[in-house]
Specification:
Helix content: under 10%
Order of helices and strands: EEEEEEEEEEE
Strand content: over 45%
Structural class: mainly beta
Shape: elongated
Radius of gyration: 14 Å
Largest sheet: 7 strands, mixed
Number of helices: 0
């Protein structure tokens, strides 16, 4: 079974920094890409950043220049370094990955359970 486990959420003051990590495990043949989404109460889930195993990155306009996504392919892990955090960025942050499982010739989208990030004003 394929599983994503995210961690690193917590409480931080506005202007502060926080780092998140997410590791994929299980019967994995290959990972096409990994990323981070966030969802505030009553809001839709939006893309924050994503990265391919080759290192190509994409960021939401609102976080570009402040957040950095990276990955360690050997550990099937993706990271998100968040700097200069804003109060309005308080949300549950979910990791996401497009994964080709072992023995199944199909790519599936997997989600982590989410980690809470709270930015105080």
């Amino acid at each position: 079974q394929v599983q994503l486990v995210g961690s690193g959420g917590g409480l931080v003051q506005a202007g502060g920094s926080l780092g998140l990590s997410c590791a994929a495990s299980g019967s994995i043949f290959s990972i096409k890409g990994m990323g981070w989404y966030r969802q505030a109460p009553g809001q839709k889930r939006d893309l924050v950043a994503q990265i391919t195993t080759g290192g190509s990155t994409d960021y939401a306009d609102s976080v570009r220049g402040r957040f950095t996504i990276s990955r360690e392919n050997a550990k099937n892990t993706v990271y998100l370094q968040m700097n200069s955090l804003k109060h309005e960025e308080t949300a549950v942050y979910y990791c996401n990955s497009a994964i080709h499982p072992l023995y199944i010739p199909t790519v599936y989208i997997y989600w982590g359970q989410g980690t809470q990030v709270t930015v105080s004003s």
